[in-house]
């Protein structure tokens, strides 16, 4: 469910479920889709109200946010793995960036609980294995750049009690997760009822509500809701949920990034 705003404004290791080609060829494979792929458009996606769509991998479902392509796509998605499930080994042609929203993620790089932030650079590969808790992630695919070289794998804790949080005003804290000439990625915590003004930076901004919620001129943003703010220079007044506050994941300044995107992938005729 979405509102579009026109204009500027220890673990048990499960067995793999098969090869990736079988997943892509299954009846549940995603058809070619263009969803919210105009980065110059402000969009509100109430992801928490969307239906889960079963993938070709048993026990793995997703809620689409942005997508260009079929099963192989430039995508922003929330993916849910049921306990004991997995996904076939695969290589990230355009990189992978994700935040663990619930449960625990396991692969060859380690074991990562809620609030873990992971970047797997272009050419990296892994076989996700999910333990008895299951796991839900917010993931971005094919949105890294060959001009901004990164390590094969980077991970850090973005938990509210992790080191590195900085106060940026009354009732507001920020933790920087990644920064380059192409983008900046942070998480923010707003105490219950906090009201703060936010200027949309050049290059735009997207926000995922991890916990809690907030409201602004575009409406109420609930848990797992996602918003792309394309009104560069606009001033938004954010008011955190009066009982829960909010925990937000934010990417900014990235609209003109020379990301891999759909390079080398053509729409079927």
How would you describe what is shown here?
This protein is an all-beta fold. Helices cover 2% and strands 48% of the residues. It is built from one helix and 23 strands. The strands form four sheets. Strands 2, 4, 5, 6, 8, 9, 10, 12 and 13 form a nine-stranded antiparallel sheet that branches. Strands 1-3-21-18-23-16-15-14 form an eight-stranded antiparallel sheet, with no helix packed on it. A hairpin with a 5-residue loop joins strand 4 (53-54) and strand 5 (60-69). The longest helix is centred in the N-terminal third of the chain and has 6 residues, at 20-25. It is globular. The two termini are 29 Å apart.
Helix coverage percent of residues?
under 10%
* Beta fraction: over 45%
Total number of strands: 23
SSE string, helix = H, strand = E?
Answer: EHEEEEEEEEEEEEEEEEEEEEEE
Shape: globular
For the biggest sheet, the summary is: 9 strands, antiparallel
- Low-confidence blocks of residues: 1-18
The first-to-last residue Cα distance is: 29 Å
Structural class: mainly beta
Contiguous helical run count = 1
Q: Give the C-alpha Rg.
A: 18 Å
Provide mean pLDDT, rounded.
Answer: 90
What's the short version?
Helices cover 2% and strands 48% of the residues. With 269 residues, the chain is mostly beta strands.
List the defining traits of the structure above.
mainly beta; 1 helix; 269 residues; 2% helix; 23 strands; 9-stranded antiparallel beta sheet
């Amino acid at each position: 469910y979405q509102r579009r705003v026109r204009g500027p404004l220890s673990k048990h290791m499960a067995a793999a479920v098969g090869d990736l080609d079988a997943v892509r060829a299954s009846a549940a494979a995603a058809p070619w889709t263009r969803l919210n792929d105009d980065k110059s458009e402000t969009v509100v996606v109430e992801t928490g109200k969307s239906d889960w769509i079963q993938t070709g991998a048993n026990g793995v479902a997703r809620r689409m946010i942005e997508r260009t392509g079929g099963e192989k796509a430039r995508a922003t998605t929330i993916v849910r793995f049921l306990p004991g499930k997995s996904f076939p080994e695969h290589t990230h042609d355009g990189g992978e960036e994700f935040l663990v929203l619930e449960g625990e993620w396991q692969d060859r790089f380690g074991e990562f609980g809620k609030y873990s932030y992971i970047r797997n650079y272009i050419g990296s590969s892994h076989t996700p294995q999910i333990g008895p808790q299951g796991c839900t992630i917010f993931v971005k695919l094919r949105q890294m750049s060959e001009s901004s070289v990164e390590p094969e794998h980077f991970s850090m804790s973005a938990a509210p009690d992790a080191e590195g949080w900085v106060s940026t005003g009354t009732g507001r804290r920020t933790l920087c997760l990644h920064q380059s000439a192409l983008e900046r990625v942070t998480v923010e915590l707003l105490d219950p009822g906090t009201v703060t003004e936010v200027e949309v930076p050049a290059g735009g901004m997207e926000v995922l509500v991890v916990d809690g919620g907030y409201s602004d001129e575009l409406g109420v943003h609930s848990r797992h809701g996602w918003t792309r703010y394309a009104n560069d220079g606009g001033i938004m007044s954010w008011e955190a949920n009066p009982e829960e506050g909010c925990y937000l994941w934010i990417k900014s300044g990235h609209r003109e990034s020379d990301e891999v995107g759909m390079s080398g992938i053509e729409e079927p005729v």
